[in-house]
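Lab channel / #folding
Pinned by the channel admin:
"Please post every new chain as: sequence first, then the structure tokens as a reply. Keep commentary short and put observations after the output so the thread stays searchable."

First post following the new format, from NK:
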Amino acid sequence: MAVPKKRTPKSKKGMRRSHHGRKPAKLATCPNCKLSITSHTACPTCGMYRGRQVIGMAAKIEKTEKKRKAKARSTGA
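Reply from TO:
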């Protein structure tokens, strides 16, 4: 089994890992509602992606309201 002959210094290790840092997310603006969103994703507020509706926002709002009411009933009982 291969074993390193000498200990790797912190600076050498840091130089090797210099490209491992996280980069900031690329932001784009939604052409429909003008909010900042991450690239290549549907807008979470209006549900549009590349000029067409891909998420039914009315259904999504209904679902969240239903969950909220169910949670309120379970904690209140």
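NK: The helical segments are 10-16, 57-76.
TO: also worth noting, The two ends are 63 Å apart (CA to CA).
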